[in-house]
Fold this sequence. Notes:
Elements: E1 3-7, E2 25-29, E3 44-48, H1 53-65, E4 72-76, E5 92-95, H2 100-114, E6 117-119, E7 122-125, E8 128-131, E9 136-139, E10 142-143, H3 148-158, E11 165-166, H4 167-175, H5 184-197, E12 204-207, E13 211-214
Amino acid sequence: MAHLLVLSENPDKGLLPSLALLSHKVRHIPAEPAALINAPGADLILLDARKDLVVAKSLASLLRATGLACPLFLVISEGGLAAISREWGADDFLLDSAGPAEIDARIRLALSKSSFKESEGKIQVAGVVIDEAAYSAKVNGQPMDLTFKEFELLKFLAQHPGRVFTRDQLLSEVWGYDYFGGTRTVDVHIRRLRSKLGDLDALIGTVRHVGYRFNAPNDETMEVSGGY
């Protein structure tokens, strides 16, 4: 499940009706520069380019100029295909008549390429943004109140998606070789992180009798979604 942000002049008129048949979380904001100032975080943006191609192209360029890190999709009518080009800065496009299977497949492919994009000291995945330089993290656009070790643990796991770490390995990597506390410390910090991740707590998975891992979005081998 991905967090999608739809930019449209008429968000209530059903841009991509098939999208409602999928399990992705969708939020709508007006397709105008002012709305981008407080725009919520997203894994992928859908920009409505069905009617005014000039305005849509301008907004797409603005999004890229402001450092957009997530994939950008254009939603266009068949008649607009001739107008789009690399200059738009979009990662892909969808016809407004696209069915749910096509929409879901394209979203999954786009996210598989950029889910763990790390640039300028930031790690972004599934609604979570980790800023290494500022020692801060956000979940769904909201700041996470993390201790230093909670931040270090979250960052370390996110930097190694899908890899399983034992409690002893996490103690060594995050707390250091000279830490003499028990592995129970790891369990406590994992539990606190899951609580602060809210409905994204499944990003930290438990591999029974082994340890923990950071689950990639759409990971079909996800072990659990809570507990420790």
